[in-house]
Amino acid sequence: MINIIKFDSITSTNDWAKENAADLPLPSLITADEQTAGRGRLGKKFYSPGSTGLYFSLIFEAESGFDLITPASAVCVCDAIKKFSGKETGIKWVNDIFLNGKKVAGILTERFSSNGRMMTVVGIGVNFTTGDFPEDLPEAGSLGFMPDKTAFAVNVAESLLSINGNFSRDDILSAYKSRLFIIGKEIEFEINGRRYSGTAEGINSGCNLIVNTKEGKMILSSGEISIIMR
Length: 230
Description:
The N and C termini lie far apart (49 Å). The chain has helices spanning 13-19, 69-85, 149-165, 169-179, and strands at 3-7, 28-32, 53-60, 90-92, 96-99, 102-114, 117-127, 186-191, 194-203, 209-213, 216-220, 225-227. It is of the alpha+beta class. It folds into 2 domains: 3-179, Bira Bifunctional Protein, Domain 2 (BirA Bifunctional Protein, domain 2), CATH 3.30.930.10; 186-227, SH3 type barrels, CATH 2.30.30. Helix content is 23%, strand content 34%. The relative contact order is 0.16.
């Protein structure tokens, strides 16, 4: 049974989950219609206006060796969007969900210890009908439908917990790769302040991105990539 806690507005569902982890029954699902200090990967802000999106965090104890939580979460979000709207979305490595060339959802996974227990919190932000994005978010877009928000969040949470209880690396990687739309495309990325470009070839067993560059094949374990438009 998932413990559900709902907020109209909150600073950050991930932050609240971590701050209250010691007192929460696990698993717990924290949802909000608005975040005033939403966070994404690499210290970026996540635009989280009221009423038009859904922002939620699932906090749980991950199975030992479950190191593909972010890819698994991305697959679960894509599946939920398909179930509730019929729309097919794709994944931009490593954690962004895209529809028609626009980012419609993002994921932030964090691991931490509380009372001697290693916990995982997966934060997910989804733009259902959000518009009027800030100018510094040119890739942002919306799904164009509004589901029952609680049902949507519970669907994602139950799917992820099911994977956590029946962990299969091959199944996760296969499902993730089938939705990865950057394979075969030219991309750019930065390592230690230097810019590189190359062709995204695929992922390895750790879901690291394999890129063929003029300097040779490179393996990306983290970071931000951008697609080169011709």
